[in-house]
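If your schedule permits, I should be very grateful for your opinion on a structural question. Thank you for your consideration; the sequence and its tokens are set out here:

===
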Amino acid sequence: MAAPPPEKGAHGYFTTAGVFSDGAIDRGSALLADALPSKLPGRMADLGAGWGYLAAPVLQRDGVAALDLIEAEALSLACARLNVSDPRAQFHWADATQFRPDAPYDGIVMNPPFHVSRTADPGLGRAFIQSASRMLTPNGKLWMVANKHLPYETTLSECFRNVDIIAGDAAFKVFHATKPQTKS
């Protein structure tokens, strides 16, 4: 059975059954959006962009010249195309853990998934962190939200020189990581 076509919800975004957070704005993503600085780097990416919620706050920040939305789920990407009309946005139907950009990014935002089907797998989030460090310039910056119980601090510290928690609540933590570690 095919998913119903995307419809605009009460939150003002197009979503459809089967996409992450289809009925409401994800609390973690909202927390990440609120924690973003007023100025962001020029070349940005959203890994696991979903239906494009984070694109609006990223594109509203000073300094952003381009934003690549990278999403593996075709339904989510179709919704993102409806939600994001800014010409600085480019859409990529791809697995964020395997994606190879044309040029490195200056900054990345992400709310990485941690489920494969219905099974929790923090390894997926760790793979997102490793991919982000690989895709960034030497002075690149990552902003990431995660559920508080997920053990991402070690992977972040292995992949980035500087890691800070910049926001959080009872359920989520928002990280800012800078200067990806070079692998020899």
Notes: The two ends are 48 Å apart (CA to CA). The longest helix spans residues 122-135.
